[in-house]
């Protein structure tokens, strides 16, 4: 009996690592290769679709997967793309976004469009406030970070629209495939 419990725990760990690694890689790829640089923000700014796999991973697989996929995926982008100074902030801010989204949508009763939208609004607040504070620290100004707010709002809004269109189908498919 103990052998069966150990094997199930090992399978669960492998499953979690696989799903989390997949969504971390997707978050990195969508951030690195599906983006537009903005000339109006203090450091150039960036609108990307990395939030799409982050949101999907957090909703489908929960707070731990969302936290790791978001923080590590986007933090890795910062490290590999020359935005190294931003990496620690991104790890915390986007990790918190993924954690909160996953936490808000983890209970089976919260797998509804209302909770999906509410979790995306929470993620938006975390992103805007988090990066505003990060820029205030980096640039030593409370005014300069204001230029990044519109880009962050567009970034989250576009990701939210895409995810809200596909999440119902993905959630159903994940259940049918036994992934949830």
Keywords:
mainly alpha; 3% strand; 2 strands; 6 helices; globular; two-stranded antiparallel sheet; 180 residues
Summarize the entry for a quick read.
The chain is mainly alpha-helical. Helix content is 75%, strand content 3%. Strands 1-2 form a two-stranded antiparallel sheet.
Describe the structure.
The chain has 180 residues and is mainly alpha-helical. Helix content is 75%, strand content 3%. It is built from six helices and two strands, in the order αββααααα. The protein has helices at residues 2-33, 51-61, 63-80, 87-105, 113-139, 149-176, and strands spanning 35-37, 46-48. It has a two-stranded antiparallel sheet with strand order 1-2. Strand 1 and strand 2 (46-48) form a beta hairpin. Helix 3 packs antiparallel against helix 4 (87-105). The chain is globular. The mean pLDDT is 92.
What's the count of strands? 2
Helix segment count? 6
What is the strand content? under 5%
Strand adjacency order, main sheet: 1-2
Tell me, briefly, the overall form: globular
Span between termini? 24 Å
Order of helices and strands: HEEHHHHH
Compute the average pLDDT: 92
